[in-house]
Amino acid sequence: MRVNADMEDVRSVAFSNQDPECAANWSTSRKVLVLTIGLALASNSTLGSSLPSGASHYLSKEFNVSSAEQLALPNSVYLIGYVFGPPLFSPLSEMHGRRIVMLLTFFGFTVFTLACAVAPTWPALLIFRFLSGVFASAPITVVGGIFADIYDDPVRRGQAKALIGLTSLGPIIGPIISGFVSPVSWRWTFWVGLIIAGATWPLVLLLPGTRFDMDFDAIHLTSYASETYPPVILLRRAKRMRAASPNPAQNTYAPIELEDNGWKHTVTVKLARPVVMFKEPIVICTCMYLALQFGIFYIFFQVYPIVFQGIYKFNDGLAGVALVPVGVGGVIACGIAIWYDTFLEQAKERNASWPKSEEYRRLPLACISGPLNGWTARSDIHWIVPMLAGVPFGMGLELVFISMLNYLADAYDVFAASALASSAFSRSIFAVLLPLAAGPMYERLGIPWACSLLGFLSLAMAIIPFVFLRYGTWLRMHSPYCQELLKLKERESANTSQIMLESRNPE
After folding, report:
1. 154, part of any domain
2. CB atoms < 10 A from the CB of 487, how many?
3. Is the alpha carbon torsion for 85, 88, 94, 98 positive or negative?
4. Are 37 and 204 in contact (CB under 8 A)?
5. Bridge partners of residue 252, in order along the sequence
6. Are the beta carbons of 254 and 13 closer than 8 angstroms?
7. Nearest 5°: CA angle at 372, between 369 and 374?
8. What gap in Å lies between CA 330 and CA 140, rounded to an integer?
9. Domain named Major facilitator superfamily (MFS) profile: which ranges (predicted)?
10. In this structure, is residue 14 part of a structural domain?
11. What's 278's domain CATH number?
């Protein structure tokens, strides 16, 4: 709704200190539950991204498709869904709340995973994969926003987002599943994905969302207790206060209601925010860097069969297992990131100055973690050499992602979901296009030089976190979104102070 500008005595609701409805004040057990659910949703999404990779031969026989570009489409069209989903779902989560968006999108993901398992034709399979990818894109950006909601301490938030790195195991596990079950039937690839999604649903439904028929104060504490986004929680609180007031003219509103919520503003400002944020230097540079890394990661799902089946004569299942060291590197990186946040917390306790800067708090890991993408793979070199090269690659890739995405979340706070949506949008485009070029590139350049080319491109992008270290503060000072964020925090602080003053001096 839009509030009449001529209204007098408009009161804006705000959280008080230790407010139990504020997600940042929830108990540790509830935060851990939300954390677990977020990781489960994101893991389903990433697993689905590479699920058909080990079933290419069987899809080729079933649908009479022979070209390498066509056989790459089940993965690529899923990632095209990643392009279209984030610019829609992230703003919707900032308008209507995280929970409803996550529930509806996971339902859509489950339905279209089932549709893939029973697809009658090749075009139908590709359409269902695209729609599955659209709905699967929601956790990729919204989960990061949820973690920013429940952890207001940058250290705890950083540790939570480091755990998102564990979801990178999903794309690693996908080819292993399809490689081993597709000899039975390629459809079992998707049946397994559906079983995993079904096993996730009880966990997703654990959080209560029902309004209980109790007195006003009890409802105040329990209703919508699973929503995490602060502006939406305050919106629901304001509506309850107006409904409970005997005075129909009570002018109590949430800050989000005082904004222009007309359809034109919604479409041109809120829904367009992830695209408009590309004008932010911090966002566009981060997107470029992560897009290249993401594209390289998905190229490997095309390259590993070329290397390990073409040179070392692995079967489909073992070629998928060859990706495991990449996942091991990712897990090691998560451990390093969590250790770094502990080091960061100790520095804050010593009252060191450097943890107070978003740049020095988040970017050092990105500065030291350039991924190693070039390696040698030929028949006279043992297969363990190119396989183990996945460990440093996985470490570098994950540390760059953890560091840069945490930096975006810290810099843009309540706009984090939109900033992360910009990142997901751009890197998904690269993840679609680069794998389609993988076959011709590796055929023309050869395996060592093609991988080295990717390494050189990564090295060129690795300068970005160093630039942010030097100029990041200046860039944030000149960012319209960062300045709007400062104003929002000042208003919230003023409203909280007013509420506390009125509670001490009741009329």
Report:
1. yes
2. 9
3. negative
4. yes
5. 11
6. yes
7. 165
8. 17
9. 31-507
10. no
11. 1.20.1250.20
Is the pTM for the entire model greater than 0.85? no
CA atoms of 414 and 157, how far apart (whole Å): 13
The type of residue at 10 is V
**Residue whose C-alpha is closest to residue 443's, from 316, 307, 322:** 307
| Distance between CA atoms of residues 275 and 134, nearest Å | 17
pLDDT tens, residue by residue, 132-162: 999 999 988 788 888 888 888 777 877 787 7
Q: Which residues pair with 12 in a beta bridge?
A: 253
Q: What is the DSSP letter of 11?
A: E
285, part of any domain: yes
Percent helix, strand and coil across the chain, each to the nearest 5: 75, 0, 20
Q: Domain range for residue 357?
A: 23-208+268-487
What pLDDT, in 10s, does the model give residues 16-26? 777 888 888 88
Phi–psi pair at 124, nearest 5 degrees: -65, -40
The C-alpha atoms of residue 493 and residue 13 are separated, in whole angstroms, by 11
Q: What is the DSSP letter of 379?
A: T
**Do the domain assignments include residue 251?**
no
Both tokens of 357, joined, read 């800067």
Question: Which phi and psi (to 5°) does residue 299 adopt?
Answer: -60, -35
499 Cβ partners below 8 Å, 6+ apart? 14, 16
| Total domains, the chain | 1
**Token pair belonging to 77:** 């069209």
